[in-house]
Amino acid sequence: MKLKSTAGLLVALFAAGMAGAPSAIADGKARELNVHAKKYQQYFAAASAEFSVPAELLESIAYAETRWRHHMPKGQARKNGEPDVEVDPHGGMPPNYGIMGLRNDAHFGSSPAQAAGLIREQPAALLSSTRANIRGAAALLAHYGARKTRAFALEDWTQAVALYSGIPQPEIAQLYTYEVFAAIRQGREGGEYKIRQRHVDMEKIYGRDKLKKLAAPRITVETGVPDPTISAPGFQSK
Questions:
Q1: What is the value of pTM for the model shown?
Q2: Residue 22: exposure state from Cβ atoms within 10 A (0-12, 13-18, ≥19)
Q3: What pLDDT digit, counting tens, does each position of 100-120 carry?
Q4: How far apart are CA 136 and CA 115, in angstroms?
């Protein structure tokens, strides 16, 4: 998906987080996960059980945000041997932290502090520990899910995923949810990540016309207005 915007930080950040051609399970090629990704799978499963949120959502959000790479504040590299990416809060766009892409800024809110409070940890722990980051994100998703459990259909978690994104514009937050659910429906697999393929009724979530627009190879997002809209060149609704 390529994004073209007239202005706005949100679209730039969204595009950066979602960029890159996905690896789908459908190509039939098995890929062996590295040792760190296998450990993260265990963390996702444990957090899913602890907070009763679908493990696939945690896997897919981590894929959308960081491709399962733990993001650390600049100058605070970890010493546990796990791979990480150093991010600079002064690099022009608000950074995301940890494997789950938590954010702490005026645009997207302070999810590290909120998530830390839910699991009774210090926010710093969620920045340095992948396990704590995943637990905090799962607790936050459960909070937004308003008493939903992992027994609920994935489609029922759409609003919780939108709230998790921290994106205030509903139309742009919907792009985020689409990428998360599309990754689960199609499956994603590489040496550093794996999202288990599971059926998601995308038409139930978005409606037929909106789904066609979201699935277009190129879309335009207009920002700089209170209620931005998305469009796809050549798209015509019935």
A1: 0.84
A2: middle
A3: 999 988 888 899 999 999 999
A4: 5
